[in-house]
Design brief:
Elements lengths: L2 H50 L3 H13 L14 H11 L5 H12 L5 E8 L2 E8 L16 E3 L5 H8 L3 E4 L6 H5 L9 E9 L2 E9 L10 H22 L44 H7 L24 H24 L1 H10 L2 H19 L2 H5 L3 H10 L15
Antiparallel strand pairs: 1-2, 1-6, 2-3, 4-5, 5-6
Helix pairs in contact: 3-4, 3-7, 4-7, 9-11, 9-13, 10-11
Length: about 400
């Protein structure tokens, strides 16, 4: 074979290989484009579902009704308070940077439009009390008592009505036969009217906002505002999940319908669902004393390596700017740890019983610690142990021995 023939044959083989590579590359690019288009379609569908969470026509109707009243509080069963108040509440809720904080701000704002409000999370076939506002004035009850209430979703209550209809309910408190079991547990008051609306996350009901008229003679007349704030919070929570990718397995969702009607279990006391702290609050509410006693081992455990408690910085001796930074650090640490507990309640319980909380929650704790370090200035961190203080206070109920070995200092 001559040199020219060899050169021609080599060139032909080279062109063949280049052509093959080019075809493969085009196929790969085409496949990537198809995947991208599919993901864009999915994202578009999700955005459409988010938009469906708020009924714009009802909002406009609400705005028109408030406007016709000169911006003041409204009468009528579906009226909705002051437009300015709703706008202020939306702005306040928008300040939330985590799920627990958004929910806490939501409850605080809802309390402006109803005498008593509460949030119940759907979990394991029950609606479990998370937190409440306005119950401290109810004889024989208080806000913290909400955390001990568990309502089975199979019971014929306002909750099952909302779950099945995926819409709000407002009406007389005796509308559902089993409501009396719930109402009898929230104080010695029988409200004349009650309200409930679903809080939807990722197109599934994750919680229910409850409100009632308390012991007042007037029925609820600001339910439209309650619906708007709840729907807006649903969208905000969805957005936070998409931005921060904080969704975890075991997220509370609406339970599947039973294949056949079954007798509803009684409404009982439930383990307290932790309510995260907000600015100027006294701290995160823990399990009640009976629950804590049941979680502690009967025998003495061996010494652990949990860091000893350190004296807290003296805030009173600081200038206003430094004190503000320390207070913000304490608040942020409390929010981070409250979120760990909110999403890992079973692990916290198991860790307490085994005196090994850190071993079970190491990844979550260190991930939150990194966020704490990124946001809190080094001078504040070097003078304090706020993050570990909240870890021990919230996750271990103040008992560092329950953390087990390995918890870093700081």
């Amino acid at each position: 074979m001559s040199d020219d023939q060899l050169r021609a044959k080599s060139l032909a083989v080279f062109h063949s290989l280049v052509s093959t590579w080019s075809n493969d590359l085009r196929k790969e690019v085409s496949s990537l484009q198809d995947d991208l288009l599919k993901k864009l379609d999915v994202l578009q569908d999700q955005m459409s579902k988010y938009e469906e969470n708020i009924d714009e026509e009802r909002i406009l109707e609400f705005v028109r009704e408030v406007s016709s009243l000169g911006g003041g509080g409204g009468g009528g069963n579906r009226g909705g308070g002051s437009l300015k108040a709703v706008r202020r509440s939306l702005t306040k809720i928008d300040e939330g940077t985590s799920r627990p904080e958004v929910l806490t701000l939501l409850l605080a704002e809802l309390a402006q439009f109803a005498p008593r409000v509460a949030l119940f999370i759907l979990k394991g076939g029950s609606c479990i009390g998370w937190n409440g506002r306005g119950f401290n004035d109810s004889p024989g009850f208080n806000d913290d008592g909400i955390k001990r209430i568990s309502v089975p979703t199979s019971a014929n209550t306002v909750f099952s009505d909302v779950i099945n209809s995926r819409s709000s309910f407002v009406g007389e408190s005796n509308k559902h036969p089993d409501n009396i079991q719930l109402l009898s547990r929230v104080g010695n008051v029988l409200p004349s009217s009650i309200f409930a609306t679903p809080l939807v996350l990722h197109d599934r009901i994750a919680a229910i906002v409850y409100a009632d008229s308390g012991d007042g003679p007037d029925p609820l007349n600001k339910t439209e505002a309650l619906e708007i704030l709840t729907a807006y919070s649903s969208k905000l929570l969805d957005a936070l999940s998409a931005q921060k990718a904080v969704l975890k397995p075991g997220e509370p969702v609406a339970p599947a319908a039973d294949p056949a009607p079954q007798p509803a279990p009684p409404i009982t006391e439930a383990p307290a669902v932790p309510a995260p702290a907000v600015p100027d609050s006294s701290g995160t509410v823990m399990f009640n004393s009976a629950d804590i006693a049941a979680l502690k081992p009967a025998t003495e455990a061996p010494p652990t390596t949990a860091p000893p408690a350190t004296a807290a910085p003296d805030l009173d001796s600081m200038d206003s700017d430094t004190r503000k930074k320390h207070e913000e650090a304490m608040r942020f640490a409390r929010l981070l740890v409250s979120e760990i507990k909110l999403y890992n309640e079973a692990k916290v319980t198991e860790g307490r019983s085994q005196r090994g909380i850190y071993r079970l929650l190491r990844d979550d704790i260190e991930r939150s610690r990194q966020l704490y370090k990124e946001r809190v200035p080094e001078p504040v961190r070097s003078q304090s142990t706020y993050f570990n203080d909240e870890i021990i206070r919230i996750l271990a109920d103040g008992d560092s021995g329950l953390m087990g070995q390995g918890l870093p200092a700081g």
